Amino acid sequence: MAMRIASEPARHTDLDAAVSLFHSLSDSTRLAIVHRLAMGRARVTDLVGELGLAQSTVSKHIACLRGCGLVDGEPEGRQTFYALVRPELLDVLTAAESVLDATGNAVTLCPTYGTHGGES
After folding, report:
1. Is pTM, for the whole model, over 0.90?
2. According to CATH, what is the number of the domain 18-85?
3. CA distance 80 to 73
4. Which residues contact 64 (CB under 8 A, 6 or more apart)?
5. What is the pLDDT of residues 31-87, one digit of tens each?
6. Where do the structural domains in the chain lie, given as residue ranges?
7. Within 13 A of 21's CA, how many CA atoms are on the CB side?
8. Residue 114 needs a FRET pair 20 to 30 A away by CA distance; which of 64, 74, 81, 96 works?
9. Shortest CA distance to 65 belongs to which of 98, 29, 99, 91?
């Protein structure tokens, strides 16, 4: 996907893939899983214990992230270890953290998407 940043306006259809990517990361559980997997591979059991979530919840979100092509599993014996597929995802997360640092509480206070307004 080639996003047009400054040279020409992007058409709505050009942004669909980016919208899907950011939507896949917009859920707090999926984002927590991605952050954890950024530290190294893990089993669902590891994620359940570390994130304090139900096994079914973690499995559902892992399936979503796998479907998006962001996470993949590697079976080892009777266990499956999950890892991030694209190391570039770490660059996206780092850039997002930089934007959040630069804007202070502006995103948090956003009436539509902030923690006290709209949908999350």
Report:
1. no
2. 1.10.10.10
3. 6
4. 24, 27, 30
5. 999 999 999 999 999 999 999 999 999 999 999 999 999 999 999 999 999 999 988
6. 18-85, 87-120
7. 14
8. 64
9. 29
